[in-house]
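Bench notes, afternoon.
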Amino acid sequence: MSVAKPLLAALAAAGLLVACSSDGENAAATGGAGAGSGLAGGAGQIRPGSQEDLAANVGDRVFFDTDRASIRADQRTVLERQARWMQQNAQVQVTVEGHADERGTREYNLALGQRRANAARDVLVASGVSGARVQTISYGKDRPDALGSTEQAWAQNRRAVTVVR
C-alpha cells in the first residue's frame, strides 16, 4: 500500500500539468484586449500571423458604450495596431465579429452587433487594410464573453472581436 500512494500522487500531479497546459486559444478568448499579455502557445512560441499573435501582441477586441456603435477614442488605437499588424502579415484575412450585451431584443442586438463590426472594419480599412481581407458578422447577444446581468458583464459583451480566418 505504501507504494500506491506515491504512485497515485505522481499520476495526479501529471494529470494537473496536462490539464493546466493550453493551446493558447482559450487564454486568448478570455484575455480581454490581449495586448502585451505574453500568451505563448505550443512549445512557448507564438506563430506570427496567428490568432494568438494578434491577441497577445496587438489586442483582438474593442469595446463599446451602451447602445452605441461608434468607436471610442480609447479603442481606436487597438484597431490602428491591428491594421499595422495586418499590413505586416499580408496573408492574413480576418472576420470582425460584432457582439452586444443581453439587454434588448435578439433582432435589435443583431443589428447593433453588425453596426459595431462594420465600425471596426471601417477603421481597419481607413488605416490601410484592403476591404477584401475583412469580413464582418454579428452574433448580437448570442455569444456572450461574460455571463451575468451586471454592468461589468455587459461591458465585456459590448465588443467587436477580430478573428483570424
